[in-house]
Structures are given as structure tokens and as C-alpha cells.
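Field reference: "sequence" (input) and "structure" (output). Example, Bile salt export pump:
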Amino acid sequence: IYREDNCILNKSTRNQPAIRVGFFQLFRFSTCKDVAMMVVGSLCAVLHGSAQPLMLLVFGLLTDTFIEYDIELNELSDDRKECVNNTIQWKRNYTVVLLDIEHEMTMFAFYYVGIGASVFLLGYLQISMWVTAAARQIQLIRKMYFSKVMRMEIGWFDCTSVGELNTRMSDDINKINDAIADQVAIFVQRFTTFVCGFCVGFVKGWKLTLVIVAVSPLIGVGAGLMALFVAKLTGMELQAYATAGAVADEVLSSIRTVAAFGGEQKEVDRYDKNLISAQRWGIRKGMIMGFFTGYMWLIIFLCYALAFWYGSTLVIDTEEYTPGTLLQVFFGVLIAAMNLGQASPCLEAFAAGRGAATIIFETIDREPEIDCLSEAGYKLDRVKGDIEFHNVTFYYPSRPEVKILDQLTVAVKSGETTAFVGPSGAGKSSAIQLIQRFYDPKEGMVTLDGHDIRGLNIQWLRSLIGIVEQEPVLFATTIAENIRYGRPGVRMGRTTISIAHRLSTIKNADIIVGFEHGRAVERGKHNELLERKGVYFTLVTLQSQGDKALNEKARESKLCILSNSIPTSFNRASIRQRSRSQLSNLIPESSVPISEVCGCSMTKCNTTKCKEKKNSNGTNIFTRLLMYKRGSPHLTLFFLCIFILYACLQTFAVTDPEAQRREINGICVFFVIVGVISFFTQMLQGYAFAKSGELLTRRLRRIGFKAMLGQEIGWFDDHRNSPGALTTRLATDASQVQGATGSQIGMIVNSLTNIGVALIMSFYFSWKLTLLILCFLPFIALSGGFQAKMLTGFAKQDKQAMESAGQVSGEALNNIRTIAGLGMERSFVEKYEAHLDSPYQAALKKANVYGACYGFAQCVIFLTNGASFRFGGYLVEQEGLHFSLVFRVISAIVTSGTALGRASSYTPDYAKAKISAARFFQLLDRVPPISVYSNRGEKWDNFQGNLEFVDCKFTYPTRPDIQVLNGLNVSVRPGQTLAFVGSSGCGKSTSVQLLERFYDPDHGKVLIDGHESTRVSVPFLRSKIGIVSQEPVLFDCSIADNIKYGDNLREISMNEVISAAKKAQLHDFVMSLPEKYDTNVGSQGSQLSRGQKQRIAIARAIIRDPKILLLDEATSALDTESEKTVQEALDKAREGRTCIVIAHRLSTIQNSDIIAVMSRGFVIEKGSHDQLMALKGAYYKLVTTGAPIS
């Protein structure tokens, strides 16, 4: 039985997703093959990590060689010495062998090349292995998560918004991917370098190393605290973005309602409000990271000062170390510390991945309370079809305080037709959802042939049930496929349950059950119940005489047909906007690249498309992005320090002890100053970039969302712009653009400054050596560029492939009730898995390319060093260049090279960002043919509401081959009521959409007070029109807010809301709820019955006081009692207004001034009811027989 506290628990835990997944648990879905790949990858990373410290050993020897050579040269400057046959001699025959510096350097060059080659191989293996293993695991996680979500009981979906699930499936799983792919390999590599660096230090000089290590706990504490804070804040930020995603999804799914009521700006603000809280968390995260990074650099620089001061005493005073050893120890520990620092972004990715995995894994582990795919439960051999409710009490899990069914006891006999009647909200539909086992009762039980249905196999049970819903949901595939989704082999002799509001449709039912307040208060045949004068009698007498005369078809009854005999449900929460022209959901999907999307009506598209394409990939993307962003650069100080350190090498060749000591102290002071500066700059940089990055993301999301809402309705008909795809695009595009423009711009600016300063100094010291080293720089840059180029291609495919999978998942989650009712969960899971295959293949390809580029980028530096030192040796010997200058030039350029490498390591992000930004600006630059935001167009004061359609022809942009309107001519004067009658698909709703300017006619015109609609200002026109549609769309906010939505141009007082509610006969119902007008209606109004939703929609239309009222079959969903009251409310609302009614039931329109009968897109006859009856044409036939007009 569903625990009611479950949902409340869900809601409270959702607000603060603490990290409850350990790092190694992220790998819980890996296979043996994955583990093997990760182990090999890690081994390669360990070997790769030890390469840099290994190079230090070579470097130490090389330094000593140079210094020895320098000391010899100094000796030669002594008059009393001479060089004979390469040997320094005292003139009294004391001899020393002079070093052959070139030969020595050649040896060192070979060492470097050897290390470089192995680094290439190891780098390639470590990255490709980890990325491949991650791709395999993510593939599995996506499959498991989606299939588990599809197994959840319906009550779980009531508590979890579809938008949030979509965000989890795109963003959160990507975060897990980041945490288990190349980041792990890079972390292992850096950590190994850290360990090996210290080993070199201890082996070569333990005293100095110990002094340095004594300071390092301070760094460790900083790193630990930083990881802790970042993880917590990331969780909070994710939560805020998920909520914003849910808002966007809801709004985009209900775009027609938003457009009709001019709610675009209001929705942008509501979306923005959620973004602001995400932005706050993001900025806090940036500040904390900046503070701790600055703190760590400060400690590191103070550590340098201490080490250098103490180290120099060991070299000069006690002569325990050679200068080479000092450098080895110093750089060993330095490289160790640096790599530990560079490993911290990896920790951030791990923390973000663990945060994202928490909810995903909890969902995967959660056992559904009603598992629709479970094999458990027995199947009856023979099904008779007797259904019984025994004292059933039921609450919806999301509203445990409102009792829906109260001790309901009712029996449905097999082979009979049983009708459930009663006022809206009496529990008729809920009873049927219990038979389908969408929910389990709180108390009591539902039995089939005497067996409690909780013991039966769910798939088998649902397979016996056939559904005809009030609001049919069709899936985005062919008509034939949609029909196949139903049940094969339906036979007669069924038990049928019919939920009806039109009592004429159920007069002949075998048994009629009257519901009231969640109980069955009476049962019997039509005549018996009339004599009892109870609920049924009241409902029947309320129905108008005219209605009885009509032989109503059961168009709006909820008919449930049982193959073999079992009843079924009606699905309330599956929403399909009727106005999305009947077929626009049936267009088969094709994988057209998003970048080609141009949504003007297809015929007018060509020229704009070319322009758009030119713009979208131009070089100006990032300059445009920077207009949305303001940032601050930070100069690299680290490189300066190394530079000074090499200058210090000279001090060891100085022979005067006093001068030496002075130089050394000066250098130590310099280190301290640099440390303090770096603390403040890092802190500022962290804050500035976090703020600019978060502001940019928020601005981009907001502007993007606003641009989407500003597109014409035809744009949304294109399946590529389905709500799911658009929500995904909003989330991922903005975060990818931020990825390349937040702190990363800081890093890139940093690196570029570094390179500039380094080049200037190097040319000053030795232009020849600088030119040689510069030959290698293009390779370093190239490896980065190559990486970017390759990844751009993949990013495109990735996006696309994930978007098509996102459409499948979005459609499945939005229509979960229909899918559950038809037992189609498995087929949707299979369809989703099929769509995952192409992004998976792309990821595998990416692994190799990324690996090769990474290996190449890493090994270039070793090769550069080899060549430079060899040439440096030549210059020292042949041209008398001082050896310390060789070190300075090499260190300057190689450091700037690594800086360039660092900049190039952001190329993948840059590549993704470029595509996202291009697509983003394409959306911004698109000028919709019908613009909501422009104030252009005619407006006039004395708006009458005089309407005329003149020879209107129209096809939907997504179906240019089907003519919907075929020369529509009809007019209506102010204050009159015009009713459109005709069979489904004849163009009734379309004509109303032309009036709202959701579309413009292809030919002909719509005149409003004599003004052509295409010339009238869109916001002005829509503000004069109120609409109540057949399936009202409500938003996930309070009842009061939903009513206020009717007029978004002004502040609406509570009194106005109450008076509108009273006019719509809604007030008494609202006052009976615990939270009155503050009651939340649930996602898409799922917490209310159809009748209640309809009355809110009417109140919403009334509050706007429109001049033109459009009623699209506004009372079809209501039971007789509320229909009478609502009909009165509508009649009152119609007074003094031009009104257009679309009717499927003739009783509601007999008193209209003009009735226009439509067929195939034009009016075949028009006049008043009496005139048309006298004509004895199509209308007469319709009234007398109820036959559809064909």
C-alpha cells in the first residue's frame, strides 16, 4: 500500500540533495572488461606520472654539468692558469680535464627523447582506456535509470515533475560521465607525479624535503575544506537548476495558453527567479574556490622562500648539496605540490559527479511500490470479469490530506455495462485508476472475480483492459503504429464501465452507480434511479429538454472496454493540447541537424536559412558572448618565480660569500611578496569569474527562454522544437557556454599573458635559442587545436543523438499514464535504448582521438627540452653564452608552452561552447513572422469586436500538403455569438487560431474592426481576446495565480479573483479546500478533476474582461450539474461580447446568433438554428440523426 508520507518525504529530500554516494560507488555498474580497461589506464597514468620526476634526475645532472663548466671558465679567467690541449693547467703543471660540454648535452638530449616517446604512448592509453570504459558505463546507467523510471508507480510521478526528470537524464548523467572518464586518469597521473616528486626529494636531500613537507599539511587542509564546500554548493546549485528546468518544460508544453494570455514576460520572470537562486549558489562556490586557491598559492610561495633560504645554506655553508641536488629537491617538491594543486579541479568533477549520482542511483535502487514490469503475481486461467470495491478508502499520494474515495463499496457484474455518474470530483475516475492499479487503496481492496487485484500480475491485468479516453494521447509515430499500441484480439462479451457526463449516453446501461463525495450512494437501472429521486434524478432533471431530444454520440463519455471482460481507466493526467492540430503529433521524426532548423513556414524559408547559417558559424560568436559577460584577467606569477630561481643559479657560481648571501636574501623576500599578491589576485579572480560566469549563464538561459517564447506557434509544431528538446537545449547549451567562459577564460587569459611576457624576455636573453624553441611551439599549439577540431565534430553528433533520445524519454514521461494503461513501458524502454546507440559509438571514437592528442601534447615538451639543451650546449661552448641564460630562456619558453598547453586543454570545452553558442545566437537572430515582443502594428481605442474571415486559405507549416482552410468566409458583428459546427478536422479550431494570430492565413485575410489581422499589434489583439478551451491548461502554482494569469498586464487584487471565481461557480469548491485559493493545482492541474480545471479556466478568461470570447467546447468535460452552472456563467460572460463557440454538442449552441456549418475547410451553410432547420440541409441531418458531417 502506498505510504502517504512518501511523497512528503520526497519533497523534503528534494530540496537538499546531500551527497550520499561514495566515489568508488560511481563505478558500481562496471563490467569485468571495464575494470580491466580502467586498471590498464591507471597503470599507464602511474607510469606517465612518474615521467616528470624522472626528468628531474636528468635535469639535476645537467645543471651540475653546466655549473662545473662555468666554474672552470671562471678559473680560466685567473692569469696564473692556462688551457693546454683541452686541459686547465697551473703554469706550474697542475692539471684539470676540461668538460666536453657538447658531448654531455647530446647524451642528455637522448634521455629526453626516450622519455618523450614513452609519454606519448602512455598518455594515449590512459585517456582512451578511461574514456571508453566511462562511455560503456554511462550507456548502462542511462538505460537502467530510464527503465527504472518507466517502472515507477503513477503516484511517484505525481510527486516528481517531468521537467526535473528530463534535467536529471541530460545534465546529471553527463556530470557522472565527467567524474568517471578522463578526469580519473589525469588525477591518477598527477597524484603519481606528486608522490614521485616527494620520493626524488627524499632520496636526493631529505633535510630540505622535510623542511618543505612540514608546511604541506596547511595545503592539505585547504584542499580538503575546498572540496567539502564545493560539493555542498554544487548540490544546491543543481537543485535550483532542476526547478528552473521544470518551469521551462511546463511553459513550453503549454505554449498556446501562454501566448493566448500574453504570459510570456511573466513566465520569463518566473523562470528567472529560479535561475537567480542557482546563480547565488554558483557565485558562493566561486568565491570559496577563489579563497582556497589563493590560500594554497600563498602557502606554496612562502614555502619556496623558506626552501630556498635553507637550501642555499646547505649548498654554500655546509656543502652537503650540489646546486643540481638543490634544484632536484626543490623542483621535485615543487612539481609534487603543483600537481597536487592541479588535481583539485578533478576533485571538483568527482564531487559534482557524486552529487548528481545521489538522486540517480537512489532512483535506480528504489523499488517501485507497484512494479508494472514485475513478473510476480498470478494470472487467472478463466476470467469472468466481476469487479468489486470493498470499503475502499483512497488519497492521492501527493495530496494525503484530501480524501478522494471514502469507504467505497460497489460491484460491477461481468458482461454488463455499468455507468458511473456523479458530480465532478466525486471519485469516478479515481475508482477506475484503482482498477487499473495505477494506485493501491489506502484501506479496503478491489477484487477481480473474488481475487484481490494486488495479487495479480500487473501487465496481465492491464492487458485485459481497453481504454477510450476523454483526451486521447497519440504518440509521435505513424497512425498505424499508434493503433498497434492498442490490444490485439478484443472480443465481445465484455464488462464495460462508462464514466459519463452526458446522461443520454448511459440511459441503457445495465447498472448505473451514483457517486457523491467518494462514496457510491445509489445503484440501479435508469428508471429505478429516477423513482428514487437521488443524485441521478437531480442530474437528469438538470439536463435541458433540447439535450434529451438529441441522440448524443458518446464522444465525450469515457468508455472503457474490456477484452475478455475487465474494465479500465480514464487517464486524467495525460495532456494533449487539442489545438496542436490533430495530426501534428503524428509526423514521423527525422534526425535533421539542429543547426539547420529554421522554423518559418517551410515555403518562405530558403533565404532566411542561408542568412542564418552564415551567421551561426561566424567568428563573431565569442565576441558576442563577451558582450553578455564582463570578466577580469589575472597575471601569472608562478612563471616569474621559476624565472628568478634560474637567475639564482648564478649565485652558486659567485665566489664572494657576502655578495652570495645578499642575493639569496633578496630572492627570498621576493617570493614572500609574490605569495601575498597571488592570494589576493586568486581570490578576486575566483569571485569575478564566478560572478561573470553565473551572470552569463543566467542571462543566456533567460534570453534563450525569452527568445523561445517569442517564436510563432508554427515553430513549436516542428518536432525538432518539442518541449523536451528545447528544455534540454536550454540546460546544456547555457552550461557549455559557461564552461568555456567562466573561470576558464581566466585560465586562458592567464596563459596568454604568460606566453607574451616569456617571449619578450627570451628574445632579450638569446634570440638564437629562442628561435629554435619557437619551432616547437606550433606543435604544442597544434595538438590543442587538433583536439578542438576533432571534438567539435563529436560535440555536434553527441548533441544530436542525445536530443533524439531526449525526445523519446520526454514523450514517454509526459504520457506515462497512457503508456501504463496500454502496458507499453517495455517498448518505450527499447526505443530509448536504440536511440542511445549512436552517441555511444561517437563516444568510443572520441576516446581514441582525445587520447592521441593528449599524448602528443604531453610529449612535445620533453622533445623541446632535449633539442634546446643540446643547442644550448653548443651556444655556451662556441659563442660564450652564459649557462644561466640557457636555463632562463628554456624555462621561460617551456613554461609558456605548458601555459599554451593548458589553454589548449580547454579546447574541448571551447569546441562544445562554440557549437552551443552558434545555435544559441541562431535562435536569438531568428525573426519570427508573428512577433509577440514587438510593439509595431495597429492599435485603436474603441475596440468593438467586429470580425470577418474573407476567403481564408491555410495549411499548417509542418504539413504544407494538407489544405486545412479552403476559402473560409464568415463574419460576426459586435455582441453576437457565432458557433462553428462540423466534424473533427474540418478547420473549426484552426479558424480560431487565425483570429488569435497563432498563425496567419496563407491567402485571404481576417478583419478585426476592419483592420487586417496581420497589421494589428499581436499583444494588443491577444489582450482583447479571452479563451476557454476544451482541455484547459493550468500551471503548477496556486489556484489564485492560475486565475490571475488571465491578465498579465496589471496587478490583480484578491477581490477580483474571488469575484471571477464566483462568476465561474468555482468559489464554494475552493473554500472547501484546506488551503483555499493557495492550493497548488499540481503539474498541469493534475490534482483537480476536469470540471474543476474547466471552471478555473473560465474564471481566468473572465478576469481579463475580453471584448472577444472564444469557447472551444468549453463545457464538454463537465457533469450536468456543473455544466448548467458553468453554462449560466458563460451566458453571463458572453453578454456584450463578440463570442465564437466551437461545438461538438448541438445543445450548447442552439441559441447562437449565427451557426456556421463547416466541412473540409469552408462554410457549407450558415444562419440561426431555426433558419438552418428550415433549410433541411446538413445541420438538420446533424440534429435529427447525430451523424457526423462528411
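The two ends are 50 Å apart (CA to CA).
Residues 387-474+494-552 form a domain with the Rossmann fold fold (CATH 3.40.50.300).
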